[in-house]
Design brief:
By secondary structure, the protein is of the alpha+beta class. The chain contains six helices and three strands.
Length: 138
């Protein structure tokens, strides 16, 4: 089942493929384009998220998918998350998972924007998981 919140944002903008049933309108075109381009194993797509919507994969194919979608979406500029685009993605996730208003997205972004990782995909995964932590606190 797909949910591009990829990545995240899933990464939201980077990760809209999950065990949560989400209508197709919530899927990101960039992620869908990367899925078509990279043709990852479908079973890997289904296992990118755990039951609590955390990204747990260490799979190179999934890292490549995350990086492809973040490149296409221009989510990272000058090695920093684009605040405007990222807040839009957080709002998409909030609309699926909660009924919180859009002001919460900025607060969540500020809490998670300094996520670290040794490559773009790992940084986005850590950002995504931070966002999930913050949403769970709501």
């Amino acid at each position: 089942m797909n949910v591009l919140f990829w990545c995240i944002v899933i990464g939201f903008s980077i990760a809209q493929i999950s065990c949560i049933e989400v209508p197709k309108q919530y899927m990101d075109e960039d992620v869908l384009a990367c899925i078509e381009e990279l043709k990852p194993d479908q079973s890997k797509l289904l296992s990118i998220f755990d039951d609590n919507f955390y990204i747990t994969t260490e799979d190179l194919d999934m890292y490549n998918l995350i990086e492809c979608s973040s490149d296409k979406s221009k989510l990272i500029k000058d090695n920093e998350l684009d605040e405007t685009l990222t807040i839009i993605e957080i709002n998409k996730t909030l609309s699926v998972l909660t009924k919180e208003d859009s002001n919460v997205a900025k607060i969540i972004f500020d809490q998670c924007k300094n996520a670290k990782g040794d490559r773009v995909a790992k940084r986005l995964i850590n950002f995504h998981n931070c966002v999930v932590d913050e949403i769970n606190k709501l």
